[in-house]
Design a protein that fits this description.
By secondary structure, the protein is an alpha/beta fold. It has 8 helices and 11 strands. Helix 8 links the parallel strand 9 and strand 10. It is elongated and about 85 Å long.
Length: 293
């Protein structure tokens, strides 16, 4: 009995490349998990591919009903298949049983589907995950011909997620540091800080709200570790301006500041360390939107 199954996404590959991978890994049975059993022939030379399979006596089976079609009942509100629900489908269970029977008979199976990215594929997220829990070794062949086990792909994804989280935390820490420095700068200049991070909703917040000489100051703070991507103020685009104006209107309404004059300021910080940073404040920014006729 074979206790290993290979997978491959074919959308970006030629018939010659797929044939080479079949040879490299000793494949003698192909299971097509595409929703359309003829979909592969939109991407490869049909005659070349089928001739090769016939010459090598390689079986070609369509698992469209088992793996290709996933009903709405097994998907979430965004249309993405839900693993726990897919595993309960009779069609999916039947497909798994057919694969296991094929391995019992000694076939070395290559499961193919259109999706080229293994990280977004059903072969990894659904089929591979299920088979791995049955102690079946699943190896995913990537576009360049290298092969990674299901467990290796798991580790890569966890590592990427941790890197993304670390980057977000670093950016959040940098932003918080910048706002603290901006608030300190304002207080030294005689401003009274009224609010930090006043949030109307996600993406629509006011970084600092201060008061001086009877004027409200809504201060947008932008902090970066360098100016390689341009000045921090450049991040204040039209979308951000719209959200600032929307948040200001709501803030003044909720706090009964209807008659109080206000202005929008910006503070841009290039931060290297507590002893090494630059701060640039621009007061009374005038937002103007141009319209092309």
């Amino acid at each position: 009995m074979s206790n290993i199954i290979y997978t491959l996404g074919y959308r970006l590959l030629t018939a010659k490349t797929i044939i080479q991978y079949i040879k490299n890994y000793g494949i003698n049975c192909i299971v097509d998990a595409s929703e359309d059993k003829d979909r592969i022939f939109d991407h490869v030379d049909q005659n070349e591919f089928l001739t090769f399979l016939k010459q090598r006596h390689i079986s070609y089976l369509s698992f469209k009903e088992e793996f290709g079609f996933i009903p709405a009942s097994a998907r979430n509100s965004r249309g993405i298949p839900v693993y726990s629900k897919v595993c309960e489908l009779d069609s999916f269970k039947h497909g798994i049983s057919r694969l296991q029977n094929g391995m019992t008979k000694g076939f070395t199976i290559l499961l193919i589907e259109e999706e080229h990215s293994v990280y977004n594929s059903n072969r990894y997220l659904l089929i591979g995950k299920y088979l791995s829990k049955q102690d079946i070794k699943v190896n995913h062949i990537l576009e360049n011909g290298t092969c990674y086990s299901q467990e290796s792909i798991d580790e890569i994804i966890v590592r990427r997620e941790n890197e993304i989280l670390a980057q977000k935390n670093k950016a959040a820490d940098l932003g918080q540091t910048g706002e603290e420095l901006a608030a300190l700068h304002l207080m030294r200049k005689g401003y009274m800080i009224l609010d930090h991070n006043w949030n109307l909703h996600k993406g629509c917040e006011l970084d600092l709200i201060a008061r001086k000489d009877g004027i409200l100051h809504f201060v947008e703070v932008k902090t970066r570790s360098s100016d390689k991507r341009g000045a921090p103020q450049q991040a204040i685009d039209l979308h951000k301006i719209h959200n600032i104006q929307k948040a200001i209107k709501e803030y003044m309404s909720r706090n009964d500041y209807f008659d109080m004059p206000y202005q929008v300021d910006s503070i841009a910080i290039i931060y290297h360390s507590e002893e090494d940073y630059s701060l640039d404040m621009q007061e009374d920014i005038k937002f103007q939107t141009t319209h092309n006729n």
